[in-house]
Specification:
Mean pLDDT: 77
Strand content: 5-15%
Shape: elongated
Helix content: 40-55%
Radius of gyration: 19 Å
Number of helices: 10
Largest sheet: 5 strands, mixed
Low-confidence stretches: 1-51
Number of strands: 5
Structural class: alpha+beta
Order of helices and strands: HEHEHHEHHEEHHHH
Length: 241
């Protein structure tokens, strides 16, 4: 599951959303299945995937890809590894590729959370498939995430893998966060508006239009707030803290 809202917007809106990962990522399960479906299926009973070595292949390639692009590496988190291993084992036992429907409840303390799932004859084949797939690659290279957990399991000649990404929910008081004391609302313009649009995966026009307001409102409601759609200091801190 992905945190990005993907509302539809008329083509002539100045702040229409860009194509968001949520919609693409859900469809991508089928895409990845097609990509790898020609591989030989293994036995139904899963055995451990040489856990550490196979999982380390994925983790090291994730951080290598990020480092090559100047993106901070992800810290491996034991809780995320546990969730990822659970999903990898479920997929292997069912011989079925799908996203964890309970991801947002099994993963705790998250501000942003996402998942890649796949299978192939070996870890490197799946690594390549992930990097050639735009939504999977976006998860791997996203600056929203700071932690990762990888789970892998082998079924016969097939490796099943789940990668779980998270940015923990926390409050920070950096200079930039503390300096934001105003409110962005319908009609506001400027660099701060563009930052909000970028965080919510909207087209960065710098104009706070109706679709920017609606996206902010959805984000606020996801936090249990009323969702008026304005970006004040509290919403800003939750977006960028």
């Amino acid at each position: 599951m992905d945190h990005t809202p993907t509302p539809e917007a008329p083509a002539d809106r100045p702040d229409r959303p860009a194509g968001g990962p949520r919609r693409a990522l859900v469809a991508l399960v089928a895409v990845l299945t097609v990509l790898l479906s020609g591989l030989v299926a293994g036995a139904v009973t899963a055995s451990p995937a040489g856990a550490t070595s196979v999982e380390d292949v994925f983790t090291s390639h994730i951080n290598q890809a990020r480092a090559e692009r100047g993106i901070p590496r992800l810290a491996v988190n034991a809780d995320l590894v546990r969730v990822a291993r659970g999903q990898a084992n479920r997929m292997a036992s069912q011989n079925l590729l799908y996203h964890n429907p309970n991801l947002t409840t099994e993963v705790r303390n998250w501000r942003w959370v996402g998942e890649n799932v796949g299978y192939g004859p070996d870890a490197l084949t799946v690594v390549v498939a992930f990097m050639q797939s735009t939504p999977h690659r976006e998860n791997i290279l996203s600056r929203d995430y700071t932690q990762v957990g990888v789970g892998a399991v082998t079924v016969g000649d097939r490796v099943w893998v789940a990668e779980v990404f998270r940015r923990p929910l926390r409050v920070t008081t950096t200079t930039h966060l503390a300096s934001f004391t105003h409110t962005l609302r319908l009609g506001s313009t400027g660099a701060d508006v563009s930052r909000v649009q970028g965080r919510l995966h909207l087209r960065q026009t710098g104009y706070y239009g109706t679709y920017t307001k609606a996206a902010v409102s959805r984000f606020q409601k996801s936090l249990g707030w009323r969702g008026r759609g304005n970006t004040g200091p509290h919403t800003w801190h939750r977006l960028f803290g």
